[in-house]
Specification:
This protein is of the alpha+beta class and about 375 residues long. It has 11 helices and 11 strands.
């Protein structure tokens, strides 16, 4: 892990990074590389705050929907209009919650809300008015717009704002004290800066990088969460333990199993919200088919593999100073492969040592 990250810093893939690896029982290894910014030589630590970008989709929104499904308040195969009757575009009545989570609802991938609107309400009205461009269920197209709608479903069903729901229902019970939207000013000095943003004309530090999330007030279903390596290690352990951590149940275990398996392999290898390994994505080539994970545009990623009892969290600010830097892709897969191989060797070595010890014991009489 150290070798991969140090080389990536030297190659300019990102200014800084922090990786943490572990099992359902706890952290096995963690390492920080580089610095927070060219103007800030502070080394990343386990408590550095990172803009999670699209990890928000799974850590925030998918987890909230998982809870609501597990408690019976949302049904995966119910039409979205059951929860959002104000969504009236042609064909909306055929789109289900499962379609939104699987990115095959027929929605466009993206729309420049931040250029077309001036307020959060105006931006949301544009989302609600954007027509489908494909029939639901026939094509995979990764869509921020679908997850913005999912965030609105969470708010409508729970009666809470997204910024309240996560800390109260997921992060707080899981012991994740530093995961939230709209981080306070007191976190700024330990937050990794992202881009010298051409739209806002300043370097971003402690405010969401995603322009559409910013237009939506910094709180959205597709982006806006900030967190630390310490918190995300707990999050990964929560999923590997089937929805419990330190004796606290946060998710229904059967619903976790449903959300983390491939839904329709004829359309894509997506689970509900989550990616699964394809041999070409950030999972690398050594995680099992049961693994699930996701990436974020700012340079973040998380993978969990129940078959290997393994999680890998990688947090970087690869968009610093510009989003044109694309070196993160290869780094993600190298980290996943290196960690999986090392953990497999360690497991084999432990098993061999136990077998040798057992063979030396005298037989029972």
């Amino acid at each position: 892990m150290r070798a991969v990250l140090d080389r990536a810093v030297r190659d300019g893939a990102f200014p800084g990074a922090y990786a943490v690896v572990g099992t359902r029982r706890g952290i096995v290894a963690e390492y920080g590389a580089g610095r927070l910014d060219s103007a800030d030589a502070t080394a990343p630590t386990s408590r550095t705050v990172w803009d999670l970008a699209s990890l928000t989709k799974v850590i925030g929104t998918t987890s909230a929907v998982l809870q609501l499904v597990g408690s019976g308040r949302v049904a995966l195969d119910s039409p979205v209009v059951r929860y959002l009757p104000e969504w009236r575009v042609a064909g909306a009545e055929r789109v289900t919650v499962r379609h939104l989570l699987s990115h095959n609802a027929g929605l466009p991938a993206w729309r420049a809300l931040y250029k077309e609107s001036d307020t959060p309400d105006e931006a949301m009205q544009l989302i609600l008015a954007t027509p489908l461009d494909t029939a639901p269920g026939v094509r995979f197209l990764y869509s921020d717009m679908g997850f913005i709608l999912l965030g609105r479903i969470v708010e409508r069903v729970s009666g809470m704002r997204l910024a309240e729901y996560g800390p109260r229902e997921v992060f707080g019970p899981a012991g994740m004290r530093e995961t939230r939207y709209l981080p306070p000013a007191s976190w700024r000095e330990r937050t990794a800066p992202t881009e010298q943003d051409p739209w806002r004309q300043r370097k971003l530090r402690g405010e969401v990088h995603d322009e559409n999330a910013a237009r939506l007030g910094g709180v959205a279903g597709h982006a806006g969460l900030f967190s630390t390596a310490t918190d995300l290690a707990r999050f990964a352990r929560l999923y590997l333990n089937g929805g419990t951590i330190d004796g606290t149940r946060v998710f229904d275990s059967a619903t976790v199993a449903v959300f983390t398996r491939v839904q329709d392999s004829t359309v894509s290898r997506r689970a509900l919200g989550w990616e699964t390994p394809t041999g070409r994505n950030s999972a690398g080539t050594k995680l099992s088919p049961l693994a699930f994970g996701h990436t974020g545009f700012t340079g973040t990623s998380i993978w969990m593999d129940p078959a290997q009892d393994l999680f890998v969290v990688l947090l970087t600010n690869r968009v610093n100073p510009t989003r044109q830097n694309t070196g993160i892709g290869a780094v993600r897969s190298r980290i996943a492969d290196a960690v999986s191989a090392a953990m497999s060797r360690a497991s084999a070595s432990t098993a061999g040592s136990r077998a040798l010890a057992d063979s030396k014991q005298e037989p029972r009489r």
